[in-house]
Design goal:
The protein is α+β, with helices and mostly antiparallel strands and about 400 residues long. The chain is built from 17 helices and ten strands.
């Protein structure tokens, strides 16, 4: 098998693995109906209705990067409940209690589903008891009216993203019961966020590929217009890459409380992505560049929110240094494994590598498809054979810019 064909097959293996991790379109529709129903229920409360409420998704279901839960676990759906015209002087504690009082009211259909009863640090969680295997986080928020006047934001972020900035509740802030934390350009402010703007950022990073894929799907459906194709009906190489990276994290560090969080993985991958049209090339190009997007701000490691540089996604790394150490260990493991897969001997053991990386079920499914495609070739990759650790010759040229430890 030629080197070029090996690389094409490696890309197919990664794509097939991603397909096995993907969430059915029906689940995206189900998630949408769940958070819309909650938004309508909250908006029917007279105490909330006058404040122009709006509910919208955030997180992996909003970005199209959700993955099937491992071992029959639950789908984690995140939503924002925004009061677009809040009363003057509303403080975080009051905002959260307004939402909580409605969800826990005697007439609430969600009353017995709230876990924990007192709410979480930032949001209220609805634990559905049906067969959907969903839990829905509802994050109370108000507009961040200061955002468009903050130099720290406007100097680096598009106005169309900034206008979606919000203030969110966080019971761990000292001002929780009295007001909102004051502005600081050096300290992370956990009450300033912008999930809607982040969604626009993420979409822009992959817009070329997204529109091409939607156009192709529209042609396949013949009568469908591109505008009729939902974003969640297709997957770009960036979305597939994020799915693979998150599942790699789950398989290798799933029981570790300090495991890398999804928003950091997603942000670094999106920043390093350059609209590659091929998953194999995206993996090759993006992974080595991810750590270069981690900043050192006066000795504090930052993964800034690209639409709100005042929010540090890695804010817990300073308080709990092991989280940074685990992230570094995870990323080094990913770098090593995917460099190894680009070698001839690595590709010959691709079944073992992807099994260790992404789990047995998706790996077996991907390898069965590979076996059918490579039937008749003298050299066929082996399933579940431990990979060698020796250095071999890459199938294709790896990027000249290699990852460097942050802070250097």
């Amino acid at each position: 098998m030629s080197n070029q064909r090996r690389f094409r097959e490696l890309t197919r293996v990664l794509e097939d693995t991603s397909d096995e991790l993907d969430v059915p379109a029906s689940k995206y529709q189900d998630a949408k109906s769940r958070y819309q129903a909650v938004g309508e229920f909250l908006g029917e409360d007279p105490r909330l209705a006058d404040y122009d409420p709006l509910v919208y998704p955030q997180g992996s279901f909003a970005l199209g990067t959700a993955t099937r839960p491992i071992n029959g676990g639950e789908y984690d759906v995140d939503s924002v409940f925004l009061l677009r015209a809040p009363p003057a002087g509303l403080v975080p504690k009051e905002l959260k209690e307004l939402v909580g009082d409605r969800l826990l009211s005697p007439s609430s259909r969600y009353r017995e589903m709230i876990e924990p009863r007192e709410g979480g640090r930032r949001c209220w969680t609805i634990q559905y008891t049906d067969t959907s295997h969903f839990h829905l986080d509802v994050l109370p928020a108000i507009p961040d009216v200061e955002a468009l006047s903050l130099d720290a934001l406007t100097a680096n972020v598009k106005n169309e993203w900034i206008k979606d900035s919000i203030r969110i509740t966080d019971s761990m802030t000292p001002e929780y019961a009295t007001g909102w934390p004051p502005l600081s350009s050096l300290k992370n402010d956990p009450t300033r966020s912008n999930p809607s703007g982040y969604g626009k950022f993420f979409r822009e990073r992959m817009e070329v590929q997204l529109e091409q894929l939607k156009s192709s799907l529209a042609m396949t459906k013949r009568a469908a217009e591109v505008s009729e194709i939902e974003d969640f009906e297709v997957r770009t190489p960036l979305q597939r890459l994020v799915q693979l990276l998150k599942r790699h994290r789950d398989v290798n560090f799933g029981d570790d409380d300090d495991r890398p969080i999804s928003v950091i993985i997603t942000t670094l991958a999106a920043q390093a992505y350059d609209n590659e049209s091929d998953l194999g090339v995206a993996m090759l190009n993006v992974v080595p560049k991810m750590r270069s997007w981690i900043e050192d701000r006066q000795g504090v490691l930052w993964v800034p929110n690209p639409v709100n540089p005042l929010e540090n996604f890695a804010d817990k790394w300073e308080e709990e240094p092991r989280k940074a150490e685990v992230f570094d260990a995870w990323l080094r493991q990913v770098e090593h494994e995917h460099t190894y897969l680009l070698t001839e001997s690595g590709f010959d053991k691709v079944g073992a590598v992807i099994t260790n990386a992404y789990g047995e079920r998706p790996a077996n499914a991907a390898m069965k498809k590979l076996a059918k495609r490579t039937a008749g070739y003298a050299s066929v990759p082996t399933l579940l054979v431990p990979a060698k650790s020796s250095v071999a010759t890459p199938i294709v040229n790896t990027p000249t810019v290699r990852s460097q430890p942050w802070g250097n």
